[in-house]
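User
Take a look at the entry that follows and flag anything odd:
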Amino acid sequence: MTANTHFAVALHALSVLAYRGEVTSSDVIAQSVSTNPVVVRRAMGKLVKAGIVRSVPGKHGGFELARPAKRIRLVEVFDAVTDDSTFRIHDNAENPRCAVSCGIKGVLSDVLERVDGAVRKELSKSSLADVVSQFS
C-alpha cells in the first residue's frame, strides 16, 4: 500500500500559483512538483471543479487562483482532491472464526472517525496564504 499524495501535489501546485501570482501552465507547475504535467492537470481539474482555481484557455493559458490565497482553507483543498476520509478500513471479508476479524471494523470506524475529525479541524486552521508565507 502507498500513501495518498494527491493533497500534497495539489497544495504544491496551488502554492506555485499563489507564489507566482499569475496564470501558470501545467508544465511550469509540473516542473516545480517534479512530476508529469498530466498529474498536475488531473489535480487542477478537481480544484477547478471545487472553485479553488480557474482554467485560462489559450496559447498562454494555464491556471490561476479563483480567489485570494488567504481565503483558501487547506481543508477545502483536501476535500477537493481526496475521495474519502484520511484513512479507510479495508474491504476484506470477515473471518467468522476470528473475534478480531469480526470486531475490528466497528472498533476502527470509531477511531478513524475521530482521527478524520482532528485532521479536518487542523486543516481548517490554515490557509494557502499561511503556507506560501513560509517561502523566502
In short: The chain has a mean pLDDT of 92.
